[in-house]
C-alpha cells in the first residue's frame, strides 16, 4: 500500500512528535539519525528523505541543506514547525 505525499507528511509529523523534543515555541526538534534509525519510521517511510523534502517544501519542517544522507547528516536537527508558524509565514 502506498501513501500519498499528504499522508506521508502527516505521518512524519506524528513520528517527529513521538521522537522529538518539544520546544517552548511549540515546535519539535529531532536529529535526522534518530528518525532514520527508528524501526517504526523505517517501516512507514519507503523514502524518508523524499518525505522530508516534501514536508520542507510545504514549510512543515525546516533543516539545513537539501539532501540528507544517513551517517553524514545524522546530527542535522530537523524542526517540526508549530502549526501557527506554518500558516502565518
UniProtKB/TrEMBL annotation:
Signal sequence interval, chain numbering: none
InterPro entries registered for this protein in UniProt: Costars, Costars_dom, Costars_sf
Protein name: Costars family protein
Gene Ontology BP annotations: regulation of actin filament-based process
Segments crossing the lipid bilayer: none
One family name in Pfam for this protein: Costars
Organism per entry: Ensete ventricosum
Family that this chain belongs to: Belongs to the costars family.
Amino acid at each position: 500500500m502506498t501513501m500519498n505525499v499528504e499522508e506521508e507528511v502527516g505521518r512524519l509529523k506524528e513520528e517527529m512528535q513521538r521522537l522529538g523534543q518539544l520546544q517552548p515555541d511549540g515546535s519539535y526538534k529531532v536529529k535526522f539519525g534518530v528518525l532514520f534509525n527508528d524501526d517504526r519510521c523505517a517501516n512507514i517511510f519507503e523514502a524518508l528523505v523524499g518525505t522530508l523534502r516534501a514536508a520542507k517544501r510545504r514549510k512543515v519542517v525546516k533543516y539545513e541543506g537539501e539532501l540528507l544522507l544517513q551517517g553524514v547528516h545524522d546530527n542535522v536537527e530537523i524542526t517540526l514547525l508549530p502549526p501557527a508558524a506554518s500558516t502565518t509565514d
